[in-house]
Write a structure and sequence with these properties.
The complex is a heterodimer of chains A (113) and B (118).
Chain A lengths: L2 E3 L4 E5 L4 E3 L2 E3 L4 E8 L6 E6 L5 E3 L5 E5 L4 E6 L8 E9 L6 E2 L3 E6 L1
Chain B lengths: L3 E4 L2 E4 L5 E7 L5 E7 L5 E7 L6 E2 L10 E5 L2 E6 L8 E11 L4 E6 L3 E5 L1
Parallel strand pairs in B: 2-11
Antiparallel strand pairs in B: 1-3, 3-8, 4-5, 4-9, 5-6, 7-8, 9-10, 9-11
Classes of the chains: A mainly beta (113), B mainly beta (118).
Chain lengths: 113, 118
């Protein structure tokens, strides 16, 4: 069975600070990896995804994530956060041959203006 | 992409009653799913809604409690039966669609239905 672990449950940053949210997964085969964002009062949106190829993927709003296969990690990064990045961030994994998306516990990010 | 709508967007229900949530997609999709997001928690898959056959339920979820219909490739319903306060949650419809030239599947989510059971 696949599982996803997000180690940071709550993160508080000041504007312009750099962000890195950890995501580790457990799965024995090839995976597809995702980061979703949920802004306050809004529904889940896809931030970025990794299927294959370049392990450094770029998403919307200046976010990027790096797939490190040897570490089973897919950490999310942003060099300089803004107040509007305040949201909950979910890492998710899906086995390449399957359909089921498994979510991590989420990280609640608050950016102070 | 896929545009997904859900009805109702929110409801407050009495213990012991049932609520049916509707999910409509703007295009035909093979895979539709129902998730639950309990307060302060992550998303948990309830079941995969299969067109023309019974839904496939995840561990901990049963058909009697969460009956699902999937009459066609653009529509599904989830019923939360005999509700208790523990069922208070956001229920989300989700679909998979092919994206990009390589044929990878992306997953899209509806806006959710916020259910409060008194």
């Amino acid at each position: 069975a696949q599982s996803v672990s997000q180690h940071n449950h709550h993160v508080i940053l000041s504007e312009a600070a750099s962000l890195e949210l950890g995501c580790n997964y457990s799965y024995g085969g090839t995976v597809n990896l995702f980061w979703y964002v949920q802004y306050p009062g809004q529904h889940l949106q896809l931030l970025l995804k990794y299927f294959s190829g370049d392990p450094l993927v770029k998403g919307i709003k200046g976010f990027e994530a790096e797939f490190i296969k040897s570490k089973f990690s897919f950490n999310l990064r942003k060099p300089s956060v803004q107040w509007s990045d305040t949201a909950e961030y979910f890492c998710a994994v899906r086995g390449n041959a399957g359909n089921m998306l498994t979510f991590g516990g989420g990280t609640r990010l608050m950016v102070k203006p | 992409s896929a545009v997904i709508s859900q009805k109702p967007s929110r409801d407050i229900c009495q213990r012991g009653t049932s609520l049916t949530i509707q999910c409509q997609v703007d295009s035909q999709v093979t895979m539709m799913f129902w998730y639950r997001q309990q307060p302060g928690q992550s998303l948990t898959l309830i079941a995969t809604a299969n067109q023309g056959s019974e839904a496939t339920y995840e561990s901990g979820f049963v058909i009697d409690k969460f009956p699902i219909s999937r009459p066609n490739l653009t529509f599904s319903t989830l019923t939360v039966s005999n509700m208790s306060p523990e069922d208070s949650s956001i229920y989300l419809c989700s679909v998979q669609k092919r994206a990009g030239g390589r044929g990878y599947n992306e997953q899209f989510f509806g806006p959710g239905t916020r259910l409060t059971v008194l």
